[in-house]
Write a structure and sequence with these properties.
transmembrane; GTA_holin_3TM; 6 helices; 0% strand; single chain; transmembrane helix; Holin of 3TMs, for gene-transfer release; mainly alpha; membrane
Length: 137
């Protein structure tokens, strides 16, 4: 929460008390909302600039790291299909594989899962931003 967000509610109530004219009060509130919108847009641009710079990097590892990480996660999810087939024919083997994978995945620190979520959302936001700006197809 930014300072502007924290101030919107109290300032809006203060405007109700200080400005008796309804039209002037509405204009003041509109300016306050526009200020909040500009602040949020500036924050979004700042966050996306790092992601866009990373995607445009000449270093192939830097520009492909986030999509590659997503592909690994997709592979883990797709691995459930053969596991379903294995469990139909050899339930004990499927249970052993499942127990091993569960133990492995629980061993991964929570911060890496958070990193994946942040990376996924950041990649999606950067792609959307690039498409809106007409930079990407």
């Amino acid at each position: 929460m930014t300072i502007v967000d924290a101030l919107i509610g109290p300032v809006s109530k203060l405007l109700d008390k200080l400005i008796p004219d309804k039209e002037a009060r509405a204009r003041a509130k509109l300016e306050l909302i526009e200020l909040q919108g500009r602040q949020e847009l500036e924050e979004l641009n700042l966050q996306l600039s790092a992601i866009i710079a990373e995607a445009r990097s000449a270093d192939s590892w830097t520009s492909r790291a986030r999509p590659s990480f997503m592909y690994v996660m997709y592979l883990l999810i797709l691995f459930t299909v053969p596991m379903g087939v294995i469990s139909a024919f050899e339930p004990e083997v499927a249970t052993g594989i499942s127990t091993g994978m569960t133990a492995y995945l629980r061993g991964i620190p929570e911060s890496l899962y958070a990193l994946f979520g942040t990376g996924y959302l950041g990649y999606t936001a950067a792609r959307t931003y690039g498409k809106v700006k007409g930079v990407e197809r």
